[in-house]
């Protein structure tokens, strides 16, 4: 059965928010665990959907995961420059990993960026320990851009790695 990528429906926001939050928690990606301030952001899909495109991966009616695609100049962009789109909050439920949902979501974002007038590239942030995600990005032609790495919490020793793809 094929994986279907589509816009998230409002009645899926809570489920997708929990999938995203649990993916980050279970993979140890939140500095402060259950008390991390970012957990509320991960769960708040409605907020993201109001400012960007939230896509989901489904298979046989089951929600596998999702991603936020920020078109060029979107308000949710963390590091995109003019003319760049940004990928944020890619997450796949642990029980659904290994089926190709993560790659399908990233491909859908790349396709959207290519279809966006004036978009010349796509950029994303990732953590150093997200090895499976790095393999997806590199397989799809993204390259590391260490000169764009950044620290979302300047007072903490936590650096996000940057990948970019020129379209």
Task: Describe the protein's topology.
Blueprint (H helix, E strand, L loop, with lengths): L3 E4 L5 H14 L11 H6 L1 H7 L1 E7 L2 E9 L13 E9 L8 H15 L5 E6 L4 H9 L3 E2 L16 E6 L1
Parallel strand pairs: 4-5
Antiparallel strand pairs: 1-2, 2-3, 3-4, 5-7, 6-7
Describe the structure.
By secondary structure, this protein is an alpha+beta fold. The protein has helices at 13-26, 38-43, 45-51, 101-115, 131-139, and strands at residues 4-7, 53-59, 62-70, 84-92, 121-126, 143-144, 161-166. It has a seven-stranded mixed β-sheet. α4 links the parallel β4 (84-92) and β5. The termini are far apart. The model has no long low-confidence stretch (mean pLDDT 93).
The side-by-side strand order for the widest beta sheet comes to 1-2-3-4-5-7-6
Number of strands: 7
The residue ranges in which pLDDT falls below 50 over 5 or more consecutive positions are none
User: Distance between the terminal alpha carbons, to the nearest Å?
Assistant: 30 Å
Mean pLDDT across the residues is 93
Binned, the helix content reads 25-40%
The outline comes out as globular
Structural class: alpha+beta
- Beta percentage is 25-35%
How many helical elements?
5
Features:
5 helices, alpha+beta, 31% helix, 167 residues, 26% strand, single chain, 7 strands, globular
Summarize the structure.
31% of the residues lie in helices and 26% in strands. It has 5 helices and 7 strands. A hairpin with a 2-residue loop joins strand 2 and strand 3 (62-70).
């Amino acid at each position: 059965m094929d994986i279907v990528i589509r816009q998230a429906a409002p009645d899926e926001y809570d489920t997708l928010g929990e999938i995203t939050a649990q993916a980050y928690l279970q993979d140890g990606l939140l500095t402060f665990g259950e008390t991390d301030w970012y957990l509320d952001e991960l769960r708040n899909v409605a907020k993201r959907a109001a400012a960007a495109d939230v896509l989901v991966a489904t298979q046989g009616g089951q929600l596998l995961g999702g991603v936020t695609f920020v078109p060029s100049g979107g308000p949710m962009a963390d590091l995109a420059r003019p003319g760049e789109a940004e990928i944020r909050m890619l997450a796949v439920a642990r029980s659904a990993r290994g089926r190709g949902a993560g790659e399908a979501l990233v491909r859908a974002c790349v396709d959207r960026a290519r279809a966006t007038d004036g978009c010349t590239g796509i950029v994303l942030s990732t953590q150093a320990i997200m090895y499976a995600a790095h393999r997806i990005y590199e397989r799809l032609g993204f390259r590391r851009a260490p000169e764009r790495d950044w620290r979302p919490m300047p007072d903490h020793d936590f650096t996000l790695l940057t990948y970019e793809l020129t379209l």
